[in-house]
Amino acid sequence: MIEKITARSVTLRHGPVSALDWPAMTMAFAIERPAQLRGFKRGDNVTFSFVQADSGPRIVSIRQRGQ
């Protein structure tokens, strides 16, 4: 679920990420470009993929859940 959107990041409340041994949490993810978040708002349920870059996690794709 989207908690916050800024010009350079999106804060998401997400479930566990077993591949990285992460529990469910709320955290910020960098975005590649602002257009990735066009049409999204706080409270939207989303699915997403990300990469764990040297600078931290970065969203690769994001879409409304169920689409």
Q: Can you describe what's shown?
A:
The chain is an all-beta fold. It has a single domain, classed as OB fold (Dihydrolipoamide Acetyltransferase, E2P). Helix content is 0%, strand content 49%. It is built from no helices and five strands.
What topology does this entry show?
Blueprint: E1 2-5, E2 9-14, E3 25-30, E4 46-53, E5 56-64
Antiparallel strand pairs: 1-2, 2-3, 4-5
Q: H/E order of the elements?
A: EEEEE
Proportion in helices: under 10%
* CATH H-tier superfamily: Copper binding periplasmic protein CusF
Structural class of the helix and strand makeup? Answer: mainly beta
Question: Are there runs of 5+ residues with pLDDT below 50, and where?
Answer: none
